[in-house]
From TrEMBL:
PROSITE patterns in UniProt: RIBOSOMAL_L21
Alphabetic keyword roster: Ribonucleoprotein, Ribosomal protein, RNA-binding, rRNA-binding
InterPro entries xref list: bL21-like, bL21-like_sf, Ribosomal_bL21, Ribosomal_bL21_CS
Name by which UniProt lists this protein: Large ribosomal subunit protein bL21
Pfam family, one: Ribosomal_L21p
PANTHER family, sorted: 50S RIBOSOMAL PROTEIN L21, LARGE RIBOSOMAL SUBUNIT PROTEIN BL21M
Function recorded in the entry: This protein binds to 23S rRNA in the presence of protein L20.
Organism placement in taxonomy: Bacteria, Pseudomonadati, Bacteroidota, Sphingobacteriia, Sphingobacteriales
Native source species: Parapedobacter deserti
Family, per entry: Belongs to the bacterial ribosomal protein bL21 family.
Length: 103
């Protein structure tokens, strides 16, 4: 059984006991959260497609930790003009574990 769910503006294919990294979510570590933007669900070969979402379907998850991704260096330069800009960015992520899918 799996589902395709919209979490923080991105779509993920999730299954029970799966761990994944999503954009930073509100909530403390160890807290449980539910996502109700389920777009598609598969249960034993039977597919259910929402229009646009499935009514009453929920995916429950548990927040494991909050962390930062790798640093990305952004370097901009225009040749012969003396223009150089160096900037860095670290995306904040939340590691979650899917605890259940309810249709």
């Amino acid at each position: 059984m799996y589902a395709i769910v919209n979490i923080a503006g991105q779509q993920f294919k999730v299954a029970k006991d799966q761990q994944l990294f999503v954009h930073r979510l509100q909530g403390d570590e160890g807290a449980s959260i539910e996502f109700d933007n389920v777009l598609l669900a598969e249960d034993g070969g039977k597919f259910t497609v929402g229009a646009p979402t499935l009514q009453g379907a929920k995916v429950s998850a548990k927040i494991l930790s909050h962390l930062k991704g790798d640093k990305v260096i952004v370097f901009k330069k225009k040749r012969r003009k003396g223009y150089k800009k160096k900037n860095g960015h670290r995306q904040q992520f939340t590691k979650i574990e899917i605890t259940g899918i309810a249709l």
